[in-house]
Amino acid sequence: MRAAAVDESGVLALACDLIRIPSPNPPWDERAVAEHLAQWLRDTGIDADVLGVEAPNAPHANVFARVRGTGQRAPFVFCGHLDTVPPGEGTWTRGPYEAVVHDGRLHGLGAADMKGGVAAMAVAARRLAREAGLGQPLQGDLLLAFTSGEETRSRGARALARAGLLDGAAGIVIGEPTGNRVGIAEKGGIWVDVAVTGRTAHGSLPHLGANAVAALAELLVCLEAAVASTSDGMSTGQAELRDAVVRSADALLGSPTLTATGFDGGVAANVVPDRATAVLDIRLLPGQEGAAVLSGVRAVASEVAARRGVQIEVTSPGERVPLAIPSDHPLANACAAAVERATGHVPVRMGLTGATDATELVPHLGLPFVICGPGHMAQAHQPDEWVSTRALEQAAEVYYHLARAMLG
Ligand SMILES: [Zn+2]
């Protein structure tokens, strides 16, 4: 009885269409999939535009659409991203863009993250638009924000927010895969680039140089020790970094992390290297400040630089704000009720270790968020990604009931 109200083949067919139009990022080009989705929405009578992120015809393209309400309530937003990660070097059993349904699973790149969720949102919007045509309009506008470039720091979401298109909205649901559970928190983080400049020398006369590779290796060991250890004997810089990063584990999100994810350096086998770079991925909990962490990394770096006679530059190309809402927030409760209605199960509240478009939208717009979508992150970003077709249908039901709860 639960699935009967949604056009089941509709959500699956649209999800297949979206998967079959590649939008891997890099190279970051959602134009074709955005055009298809916008036309699908227009065919159902919903106003929809394709908006280039930097310029009207840019290949980086958002879709913005609106199901008009009567204006008695503030708008509510459905948000999902149109890009996927690249298919990767791993072997896919079926082609990543084939969109094959087998044994109750839809396989393909983006099935879970998150063309399935986008399709479910679009199908729910179509149902609401149809009901409006039959004299049951929503009391507020339903805004559809299908974004470009989520996998590259949510640049499409940032453009949509800055264009003012979502201003005045009273809440947002992000359709990232949560297994149709209710996501109420996500880790944020800060990326850090480290560049060490030393002095070259002949490999046989290392005392004449300042070894950038060795200095960087020492720095990474010191950074790890600062966040991993509670022992005495830490330097002042390490203690500062530890204070900025280390927290007791959050029930939903776990602990903050600091991970070296890149390392490059060296000139030739017989040359003391004067240049080495590294990248750090640092994940933080709500309430933590990227700036304090950056300052701590710099404090450790300057100690290593002094010991080693090198210069170390520490910069950040970007930050994602950690977010959380109270577990009894009305939006969390409304989402949980919608999930229970769609699935028959009371969903748990959960947190996401990765950031979503919410990190750009929520601080800018100052609205509550919830993350809820079909599929699981464990299936994302790897070969043979899939989503259960039942979860897709249930997600379309969840979004429908959530919109009715928020918009009347
Ligand atoms: Zn995603």
Automatic annotation (TrEMBL):
InterPro entries: ArgE/DapE, Bact_exopeptidase_dim_dom, Peptidase_M20, Peptidase_M20_dimer, Peptidase_M20A. The keyword Amino-acid biosynthesis applies. Residues 184-306 form the Peptidase M20 dimerisation domain. The keyword Transmembrane does not apply. Its EC number is 3.5.1.16. It comes from the Bacteria. GO terms for molecular function: acetylornithine deacetylase activity; metal ion binding. It holds the Pfam family Peptidase_M20. GO terms for biological process: amino acid biosynthetic process. Keywords: Amino-acid biosynthesis, Cobalt, Hydrolase, Metal-binding, Zinc. Its cofactor is Zn(2+); Co(2+). Belongs to the peptidase M20A family. PANTHER family: ACETYLORNITHINE DEACETYLASE, PEPTIDASE M20 DIMERISATION DOMAIN-CONTAINING PROTEIN. This is Acetylornithine deacetylase. It comes from uncultured Chloroflexota bacterium.
